[in-house]
Amino acid sequence: MQNAIKEAAEFLQSKGTKPPESKAVVEALIGAEKIAKQTKVNYSYSQLIGNWRLGFITGTKKTRKRAGVVLGAGRFLSKLVKIQLSYSKSEDSSEKGSVENSVKFGLLKIVLTGPVKFWNSKNILAFDFTKMLLSLSGLKLYQGYIRGGKDRENNFDNQTLKQQAFFTYFLVEDNYIAARGKGGGLALWTKSS
């Protein structure tokens, strides 16, 4: 089942020449998520520390109210756009830290940063993007708090999980990680330097 995920990770890290079918990757991710729930696997925040490049996503389609959220078709992201998550630890807690989400397209780079908290019992990483750096060809166009970021950053630990954005990680390996977002979509990241 996880062969499609491994093949996708190898393709994303330029170790494979041909990507697996998107449908097979989506099915494998759903299967891995079911196994993680059944076996009640627990991860720790320290396993996420590092740099991870986003390579595969599924969207969601809203259907009738009764049906809820349905996954859309999965797709590999273009290698022209580099989207990377970087997690780092806090000095005072093993389950808290910060996240940096950078998007680079040509000469344009957007970096969002903010606090994170890992809920071990649920493998959930809550986060908030409170600051932004926008640069063009290395020239800073904007750097500072966004959307009341300073207050949100100060109140982050007081918020309930329902008030925060989050990823539920269901697969954490040395060279790739997979999670379901709060909105219902799935994502696969590969380790980057």
Structural class: alpha+beta
Approximate helicity band: 10-25%
Query: Low-confidence runs (pLDDT<50, min 5 residues)?
Result: none
The CATH class name reads Mainly Beta
Q: Return the CATH architecture.
A: Beta Barrel
Give the biggest sheet. 8 strands, antiparallel, barrel
> What's the arrangement of strands in the largest beta sheet?
1-3-4-5-6-9-10-11
Written as H for each helix and E for each strand, in order along the chain, the element string is HHEEEEEEEEHEEE
The amount of beta strand, in percent, is over 45%
Number of beta strands: 11
Taking all Cα atoms into account, the compactness measure Rg is 17 Å
At the fold tier of CATH, the topology name is Lipocalin
Q: How many structural domains does the protein architecture include?
A: 1
Which word captures the global form? globular
N-to-C span = 27 Å
Q: Average the pLDDT over all residues and give the rounded result.
A: 91
**If helices are DSSP runs of H or I spanning 4 or more residues, what is the number of helices?**
3
Structure commentary:
- There is one protein chain.
- By secondary structure, this protein is an alpha+beta fold.
- It has one domain (3-192): Lipocalin (Beta Barrel).
- It is 18% helix and 47% strand.
- It is built from 3 helices and 11 strands.
- The chain has helices at 3-12, 22-39, 149-155, and strands spanning 50-62, 69-76, 81-89, 96-105, 108-119, 124-127, 131-136, 139-145, 165-172, 176-181, 186-192.
- Strands 1-3-4-5-6-9-10-11 form an 8-stranded antiparallel beta barrel.
- Strand 5 and strand 6 form a beta hairpin.
